[in-house]
Amino acid sequence: MLCRKTVELFTLLSHTQETGSRRMGMTQELLALVTGLAHYLKILIRIALTGALKLEKEQNVREAMASFLDKLHLLAVQGANPAARRMIKGPSGEVMTPSLTGGNFGTQAVTYGFRSLAPENAGDPPFREGPSKPSLTSPPSDLCIKCNNTVEEDCVRLGTYQRWHSHCIECAQCGKVAAVPAVKEPTSKTGEDKEGKEVTTKDQLPKPATARRPPANVGAFVYEVDSRREMPSFGDVPTIILCTDHAHGGCRGGFQPVQRLEQYAFLLNVALRRLYLLLKKQGVVPSSPGIFHAAS
User: Which of 34, 83, 85, 167 has the most CB atoms within 10 Å of its CB?
Assistant: First the structure.
């Protein structure tokens, strides 16, 4: 909901040229959106605090609460500075590299957020011109490379801006897919209540939309290097994907599983770049990003 409300806010901001009664209506929408955003941010912080307390009490992770509060403090200190770097550095100033032996691979070696979306990997934010920033004339896409539908769930990425639904990562030879089987819907049971009336109940299983699913089995898939083709908003995209059973010497790995929360962060990243491009075309955003940041 926080992600959706933020995207709605971006959409509303894209209509800044409206006038008259429509502009008055937009003011009411803006107030409602800001109130909703504050509400969901409060819930999110409460969830994180509760999780940190559980880690300390149940798992004996003594640094959990301090670590979380340090991250919040860092966000406040940086003050939404688009030039801020989120990579963790060692004692000598070297950038620490993630380890494959434990932890969440998507978040290792970054202070907060996701490693795949750190400026060092995803490019600079649109409010700051930089050498690693993707082209603003062709913003990244939120669509699945294979089926061309929006990806709003657990998925698979190659690099930062190439994304597939987990079930769209499929071997071209045998049809094997990377998606882990989803939780089945609860089965209905018919019985009688205390008064003898027939009632229908369901087994208490988690709903597929809310159940926590294992990450996609990306380790079992590779792509043909020679099959890569240039696609707008995606770059060089592999068009032939194979499972490791049918792989050959011209194949390469590199697929990474993306859980739902990381994908939501990616969608916000794409939506922000699109909004910036639109406002720049409308002349709302000054040509100098520094001026825009100072105003914001």
Answer: 167
Query: What is d(CA 190, CA 129) in angstroms, rounded to the nearest whole number?
Result: 63
Please list, in sequence order, all residues whose beta carbon lies within 8 angstroms of the beta carbon of residue 269, skipping any fewer than 6 positions away: 117, 122, 140
Asked whether the predicted pLDDT for residue 4 surpasses 80, the reply is yes
pTM above 0.70, yes or no: yes
Residue 157 and residue 91: Cα distance in Å, rounded? Answer: 32
What is Dmax (Cα atoms) for the chain?
75
Q: Is 286 helix (H, G, I), strand (E, B) or coil?
A: coil
183 — pLDDT class (breaks 50, 70, 90): low
On the 0-12 / 13-18 / 19+ scale of CB atoms within 10 A, 178 is buried
Instruction: Tell me how far apart the alpha carbons of residues 85 and 93 are, in angstroms, rounded to a whole number.
Output: 13
Question: Which tokens hold the place of 87?
Answer: 């990579």
90: left (phi over 0), alpha (psi -120 to 50) or beta: beta
Q: Which residues contact 225 (CB under 8 A, 6 or more apart)?
A: 238, 250, 251, 252
Query: Domain limits of the chain?
Result: 1-79
Q: Which two tokens stand for residue 45?
A: 């912080």
Phi-psi category of 130—alpha, beta or left, where left has phi over 0 and alpha has psi -120 to 50?
beta
**Cβ atoms 79, 85 nearer than 8 A:** no
Contacts of 160 (CB under 8 A, 6+ apart): 116, 117, 121, 122, 123, 140, 266
DSSP class of 219: G
Alpha-carbon gap, residue 209 to 114, rounded angstroms: 23
Task: Give residue-wise pLDDT tens across range 102-159.
Answer: 445 566 666 677 878 877 777 776 666 554 445 545 678 899 999 999 999 899 999 8
Q: Phi first, then psi: what are they for 48, rounded to 5°?
A: -65, -40
- Please report the DSSP string for 80-93 in residue order: T-TT---B-B-TTS
Angle at 268 between CA 293 and CA 272, to 5 degrees: 35
